[in-house]
Amino acid sequence: MQKEWLYVGLTSLFELFWIFGFNVASSWWHWIIIVSIIAIDFHFLSKACENLPTGTVYAIFAGAGAIGTTLMDIFIFDGEFNAIKGIFMFILISGVIGLKLADNAPTDHDKKKGVNA
Known about the structure:
- The chain is mainly alpha-helical.
- The protein is built from five helices and no strands.
- The mean pLDDT is about 90.
């Protein structure tokens, strides 16, 4: 596993930490922790973007955040799951996978040069 993909996983995880913090913060010092977690999160995001396509990194980051937040709402904050949420989570996951596959697809420029993806 490439180090950059570890950064993608870490930025997705830390995004969920600070989103959770938004839901439970009740003191001024909680916000100091949340801001620190956000800074760490964006450090991992920038490290992931150094050698991976930014669009793919951001799609995974945003998709993991959206799905993770929905699951956190359901399992931690007693939110409700329904078929519509499930369908849209499936669409989101499919879109992120599609973007990753599209990044690896050879372009017309690569085909003309004889480059394989």
